[in-house]
Design brief:
The structure is a single chain. By secondary structure, the protein is α+β, with helices and mostly antiparallel strands. It has a single domain, classed as Glutaredoxin. The strands form 2 sheets. Strands 3-2-6-5-4-8-9 form a 7-stranded mixed sheet, covered by helices on one side. Helix 1 links the parallel strand 4 and strand 5. The longest helix is centred in the first third of the chain and has 18 residues.
Length: about 190
């Protein structure tokens, strides 16, 4: 398991639109979040130990904040030829309380400058990026409890119309997105 940090997309960036296959059938675009008070776009996958480590608490946080008017969208962009456990039919088995989409071309991950799983982006109701970073500071085997405290603080700030201070925006760390051969993005320097 390689520890890859977020690239930390520039705050204020407008949420890149998409139209992706949902594991529950049909396609979904960013307009799904149009009536939300804010929304989360997160890049996850089925097999990553970092995602599996936070999965139960992530579902709890999502349910709690969906009830408060925050939208949640999960996207998997991994190469399914090399990582078949991330195929859409396997993704559907997760039965998350939010849409789980498959980014076959990996262009959406590139548009968000996603680097790892989980990679979390929070946008306000105007589709402007206000937080990007970690779920919390728990990692597999570091002994810290999974709480979702960093994402919770960000979502509370969005709901209150407050700015999230830069020092509260700590890069996420997780498995690198599994890029298709020759499709690696150029934003890694």
């Amino acid at each position: 398991m390689s520890a890859t940090p977020s690239t930390m997309l520039e705050l204020g960036t407008r949420a890149p639109d998409f139209n992706l296959q949902s594991v529950n059938g049909g396609n979904l675009s960013l307009s799904y979040a149009d009536q939300s008070k804010g929304f989360v776009v997160m890049f996850i996958c089925n097999h990553c130990p970092y995602v599996l480590h936070i999965e139960d608490e992530l579902v709890k946080v999502a349910k709690e904040y969906i009830a408060k008017g925050i939208g949640f969208i999960a996207i998997s962009s991994n190469d399914i030829e090399k990582y078949p456990e991330d195929r859409p039919e396997k993704m559907a088995e997760k039965n998350y309380p939010f849409p789980y989409l498959y980014d076959e071309t990996q262009e959406v991950a590139k548009a968000y400058k996603a680097a790892c799983t989980p990679d979390i982006f929070v946008f306000n109701e105007n589709r402007k990026l206000v937080y990007r970073g970690q779920f919390d500071d728990s990692r597999p085997k570091n002994g810290k409890s999974v709480t979702g405290k960093d994402l919770r603080k960000a979502l509370d700030a969005v709901l209150a119309g407050k700015t999230i201070p830069e020092q509260q925006q700590i890069p996420s760390v997780g498995c690198n997105i599994k890029w298709k051969p020759g499709n690696e993005p150029d934003y890694f320097g």
